[in-house]
Amino acid sequence: MKKKLYFWAVYLLFFAIAFPCILYYTLGYPVDDVDRVAPGWGGLLLAVSTALWSLLAWAYAWTLLVAPFRARAPSQAIQRAAIRRRARVVQAKDTGRRLRGWPVWNLTLAFDNLSGTPIQDEMLAVDSKPQLHRFAVGNTLDALLSDDPGRYPNLLLEAAMPEVDHARVIRRGVIGVLLLAALLGYYAWSWSDQSQGQGWTFLTPWHPLIVMPASLCVYLLLGWLFTRRVGIDRRAEALNYRGVGTEARVVQVRQTGAEVNQQPEVEFSLAFEDRQGRAHTATVRKVISLLDLDRVPRERARILYHPDDPAQVGMPDL
To answer: Model-level pTM greater than 0.85?
Structure first.
């Protein structure tokens, strides 16, 4: 999975960074005097370029540097709430990472959510006592649930202290500084090589200093829209941890015509009763892998509905 992600990352970065440079320095370099923009437009394009790169720098710092430290606050809130569950280890994978010399495991745990419905979820755990084999499949662990699920993390092992992999954060920080230095160097080289005493008039809309950050910002926007589209958001996490499990009657199944990564989106029309016996209907859209189409329920389906808003429905088995 990681290799596939690395491949797509390199593929997308090629078209966002390398490809604009190849086109510009092959077709539009050096800039002829007739192709230069007015000084006012040059200053505006410089401001746009700086704003786009600043947005990318903020996104890098917020998601890769600050996020590990921000995650400690909800972890401390979970410990204060002290909603305890017994969690059974369904699957355990050694990530190969080490934190202070201890192995980091990716655990799949089965437990009852806040409504008492059995669910499963994954979490990373540092094994500070590997000699006890606590994370062997089938073992049960004491876990704590968030009383306000949705924001990561929603689950902690009891007595576990939230840890930040400082070495990893430092590596990300060093990479960020090197990238920033390279960018500033590119600005300086472009100025000295192309200004020719005419300021930033060489900074046309198709210059890499404009095209590269614009392309990367588009990637950020598409990534955000994609996560919203497939339901990877706080509401889906909150429903998983708070939802009441029941069985629904499948009224209709149809393809919407939309696709995500060439996988069809399927719409389910469902009818079910809540714990009080009240009837409800709901519509759920899911992106289904072509390999899993034979698993699409046609008559009955297991669902989770929000106890305070039965219109919020999820299908955890798909």
So the answer is: no
